């Protein structure tokens, strides 16, 4: 800090001093300054407890407890010349103690504070005044709002700032306010600066933390979904293996589909599960579209016999914009995310796959043999493909 000499157009440096050099203490001085002027921390705050030790099962004492304009509880921990290496852990404990406080708990604690330090004042009236007439009933539910933490110190150790910055990535609402004491003659000057996060980047920091948390939750949900699929396939495979040896050498995967070879290269049978349907398919997925169209043509020519052998109508899908072609049997309204549906889904899939493989076994073998002497010219042109019932590609969500 500098003292400005307007006449000489110069600056005289004012060096900071320690609180200890002036015989100042954390509790009797810094804490009382903040109680008297909580706006020094950069925002309107209502102090509702001081030196609070009302936590069940512990003798620990919280420096200051406040409310902000957004109905959040604010835990304020003060240190003087050094933050102390355990201040972050200390504040997190206090925040956890406060997390279960209800609206009535907060009003009761505030009234206890007023009875001790401001006799005659009423908590409800003070809250109405602070919130400018806005209703606070039901708004002070900290389970919904969350807790904010303000750390105040003259110096923050590296281990403290590192921990705070890391916690910000997980939506823990923490701020570090650095207090610096100066002496000018007989006068003491106090500077209070928010150093983490910087005020001008606070909104950005919060948004980035929310984004990081959302991505972490998405990743965790995806991992859970992978494990759920693997478990689903583990239960399905013994059922299908009782009806056909088609999947006897197949292991469960984390994908939303599970395939087994049909005896024709690049023409597998597949199970597909999504949040809205379950399907069995014959995928004609050879490298060249004309081969898939040719096989499709040969099989479609026997559609009536195949569907009669299968026992139901199939969806014959040959889209112009795809190399592969599929023949599908699907049931909508089945959601594998709901584990109570698993027995129904697995019974449907195992029964349908056994019938699908039996219905296509000979027609597919014959079509594949004729492919050896076929050519692109002998396959149907795309525009001549029969107008079959088309289906959309299953989407895994």
Task: Provide structural commentary.
- The chain is of the alpha+beta class and 397 residues long.
- It has helices at 26-36, 87-98, 103-117, 123-130, 142-145, 158-168, 202-241, 289-300, 303-310, 342-371; strands at 2-5, 10-13, 16-17, 46-52, 62-67, 73-78, 147-153, 173-184, 187-196, 257-260, 269-273, 277-284, 315-317, 325-332.
- Helices cover 38% and strands 22% of the residues.
- The strands form three sheets. Strands 3, 4, 5, 6, 7, 8 and 9 form a seven-stranded mixed β-sheet that branches.
- Strand 8 and strand 9 (187-196) form a beta hairpin.
- The protein is elongated and about 105 Å long.
- The model is unreliable at 380-397 (pLDDT under 50).
What keyword list fits this structure?
single chain, 397 residues, alpha+beta, 7-stranded mixed beta sheet, 5-stranded antiparallel beta sheet, 10 helices, 14 strands, 38% helix, elongated, disordered C terminus
Low-confidence stretches: 380-397
Q: Name the overall outline.
A: elongated
For the largest beta-sheet, the strand count, sense and barrel status come to: 7 strands, mixed
**Secondary structure tally, helices:** 10
Q: Decide which structural class fits the backbone.
A: alpha+beta
The topology string of helices and strands comes to: EEEHEEEHHHHEHEEHEEEHHEEH
Gap between N and C termini: 58 Å
Give the total of beta strands.
Answer: 14
Output the radius of gyration. Answer: 35 Å
Strand content: 15-25%
